[in-house]
Amino acid sequence: MTATQSVMLLAAVVVSLPGLIHAFQPLFSFDGNSTTHRDITRMAVLRKTAEVCRDIAASEGRDFSLTIDNSLSPDKVQRACLSSGNSTSLLSTVLFQTSIANMYLSNANVDVVYSLSEEHHFDDETFQGGRDVITAGVSAVKASVKKENFVAGRWILGQVCHTLQDFYSHSNWVELGKTAPYSTLIKPDQPLENLAGPTVPTCRNCTQGDCANNLLPDLLQQGLLTSGYFNLFSSAKPAGKCSHGGLFDQTSKQDPIGGISKDDVGSSHGFLHHNAADVAVNATVELLEDIRLAVGDKNFLQLMGLSQSSVLCFVIDTTGSMSDDIAEAKRVSFNIIDSKRGTPQEPSAYILVPFNDPGFGPLTMTTNADVFKASINKLSASGGGDIPEMCLSGLQIALTAAPPSSEIFVFTDAPAKDAHLKSTVTALIESTKTVVTFMLTDVLSSRRRRRSSQSVSPRDISQSDAQLYRDLARASGGQAIEVTKSGLSGATTIIEDSSASAVVTVFQTVKNPGKPDNFTFNVDGSSRNLTAYITGVPSLTFRLISPTGVSQSSSESSGPLASSTKTGNLHRLSLNIGNQTGSWQIRVDSNSPYSVKVTGQSSVNFIYNLVKPHEGAHGDYSLLEGRPLAGGNASILVTVTGSDTVKVTDVTLFDSSGPSEVNGSVQTVGSGIYLVTFSGVPPGDFVLLVKGEDSSSTPRSTPSGFQRQASTQIKTSSISVTAQVNNTNIAPGTTVSIPFTVASTTNGVVNDSASGTFTVQANNDRGYTSTSPSSITIEAGSGGKANGTVTLAVPASAASGTDVTLTIGAQNAAATDINFAVLRFFVTPKVTDVTRPVCLVVNTSGKCSSSSSLCASSQWVFVANLTDGVNGTGLDSISIRQGNGTLNTSTAAGAGGENITVATYSSSCCSQTVQLTMVDKVGNVGTCEGQLRETTTAAPATTANTTSTGGRTLSVSHSLWISMGVIFLWK
Ligand SMILES: *[C@@H]1O[C@H](CO)[C@@H](O)[C@H](O)[C@H]1NC(C)=O
Ligand SMILES: *[C@@H]1O[C@H](CO)[C@@H](O)[C@H](O)[C@H]1NC(C)=O
Ligand SMILES: *[C@@H]1O[C@H](CO)[C@@H](O)[C@H](O)[C@H]1NC(C)=O
């Protein structure tokens, strides 16, 4: 899987870390031949996604030729899934790759948050506890999906997968000879059986370090299930019990010595590592199937992130003077909706957040374009008046609702009243990599007065008010467009540009203070429709120069290289690239601040995540949310998307405001993923620039070098904010306390002689009650650190699957430096309904002729009583999973007072089996199967859950015999 060389490099980088993991390796395989949680999760997601697409294709009568095995890539799967896709069309797998990365990063995070929780890892024979973790998680995933909150759903799903996968590494399931998953773990209404009791000995000493035969033969003969004990600090364990094993597991040093883990090929039972990993993949596929049945195919594919298009997200000021702007937002969004409906470019969801004063919200998030249209139609500009608006509050809720890497458009003509949220909003922009573009109408310098009687209205945006919006735009990689109300329709072209397929950023920079400069960017053969955006003062001029030296100035609106338009402070250039790939230049002449952005459309792009080496008990890396430390090392996981033939050659952190440029050392870790390490990143605001080569023959010219740039700025900080979270699930009606530590750092390490006072802000996106110290002081002689506690109260009414993002920010006294911890919590009530809906077959009747050519003219009927029982939450949906007939339902009361749904399925005799899927209100899935017996007269069936083998299979083999006979005759 990974080249030995790169593994050596990787091992050299991490050798200083404590390498004491007690689970499948979370992200990276140190030996180059072990399967990680990342691999297992990725394979399972790709396989299940492909299977769902295959089933959908079959039901629509389309071909689906992809072979489903463990060698799938996101590009292959997404291409195969696109019903209208073909190999030459533009495809962006950025969203799919981002979703997969979020799932494996949240999976890996379990080793950080729950490092000492035995049930999250099925250690210490905690089978009931481990299954409860899975049950609660699965229920929360289903609840999130039901609310179309796919971001939260993915995050929880990643966590659940970790626990499920660990079972196969930490228990003796594969040693018992099992090759299929232990389905009982995801069926909470089935008893956990054959567990070795608390006093049953399970292991004996390993002999001279060889643990191949340390499980007691009796245990294996009786088929009893056990798992290894694990403890970092204490060697105590019940007599005769197996340990996890490994250098850091103290219990494995006590009789019985050794362990049974299969975490990697070097573990105590490493010889079974691949068997365990294979079953773990299949178990994860089985879990995904359960979720798919509960939420339906369409929602399931959205949960997996299988989408070509991003969301369309507007945050709109609805005060009195905004009616023109609202009309324009409506026009442009309707235009996008109407032109893309039914195509793969149709926005995957729509988000609308109105704000004014004192209110903001509610947030509308929907996948239904008509619901969005209705919401935007309902907006009316009213009230407000002479006060600034709650712009950042509206933006904050949009930022937490939108999937990562979305683009948000904010329309306003007023300064923000809630500018104190700037640092929280900045933290959210950085952690979600959202691009925020502001459509500012009537900024003070743009002359037009709304109130002729007054010289300056408080609603007008002054240059300094506009700077707040410019700063946020810059941090996110968006733009601050300043236009007159009448010019707005010219500027909204950029909204339509951004909703095109597979938009990539080729180059972007902001110069503040402005000075004349020359920018070069590389255009590769895979990129189409290059567009440049330049914003700045009216006196700004520029010149565009092609690789062959042809040039065009800003005064030519149409020339050999581009056609351009100017609206407000925005120049938009459509580049005419022709076959001129290579190095292009833009020379800007301005001494005022300006920005330059060049985008194109290409399948080749990248995603990235800041990661950090684990502190403490577990090795490997986990997601870093917050800023990397100035002067320290930064690690970034880069995944190339859109091509299996692309190679990354250079990754650079590039500071547009200064001379700093830091080159990363690039190591491949397989599957198009690279771990890039930067050492000694100086203070500054950086953007990530990735360069590489595509070795496949592109439609145009030679193998071309490409460059892509991340939108969001990466800022370093000398403040470290870490929160100690040991549970991310919160029950409604409870309050959690989150201890956190602020430290002052120098060159990436805590400066233990530092002192100082820091302003602390804790904000959450749900408006839940939260307390926090307003400041925190690092006293001299306290080791450079100070501790505080934030509390967060979740109301009793919070619904299952709700996510809460809590941002804890600390700013230095001079207000020149800030850092954050971004924490996600999920509302997961105790699951009370764990039983699946059941069915009792009442009757199967009908006469089917034995001649298959006459099948269409005869009918059969299947009647069953479906119920979720007296204590269940009740049936939520019933659907036909297999069969072409029609289903009618009616309700009745059962003997015990439970609600019964009478399902009557009738079908032609051409299809003689039926499978119904029943889902209750919390997502437990039951199936109900029926079939017409292979007789010509009616035969009442008496049992529920008849399997679909039996008569049907017989008839298939019967007809096979007949056709074989025919073949023999023909010979
Ligand atoms: C990895 O392990 C598998 C199964 O044990 C073995 O077939 C393969 O040769 C190993 N590969 C490397 C690079 O060690
Ligand atoms: C494939 O897509 C390209 C670009 O969208 C289109 O021009 C071409 O006709 C499509 N080919 C097929 C076979 O559909
Ligand atoms: C297991 O090994 C330990 C250490 O060598 C030894 O003290 C103990 O007696 C052994 N137990 C058995 C049952 O042989």
Automatic annotation (TrEMBL):
Residues 73-301 form the VWA7 N-terminal domain. Residues 692-713 are annotated as: Disordered. It holds the Pfam family VWA7_N. GO terms for cellular component: extracellular region. Keywords: Glycoprotein, Secreted, Signal. Residues 723-828 form the VWA7 Ig-like domain. Residues 504-603 form the Hemicentin/VWA7 galactose-binding domain. It comes from the Eukaryota. Coiled coil: none annotated. Residues 1-23 form the signal peptide. InterPro entries: GBD_Hemicentin/VWA7, HMCN1-like_VWA, Ig_VWA7, VWA7, VWA7_N, vWFA_dom_sf. Residues 695-713 have a biased composition (Polar residues). Residues 312-485 form the Hemicentin-1-like von Willebrand factor A domain. It is found in: Secreted. The keyword Glycoprotein applies. SUPFAM superfamilies: vWA-like. This is von Willebrand factor A domain-containing protein 7-like.
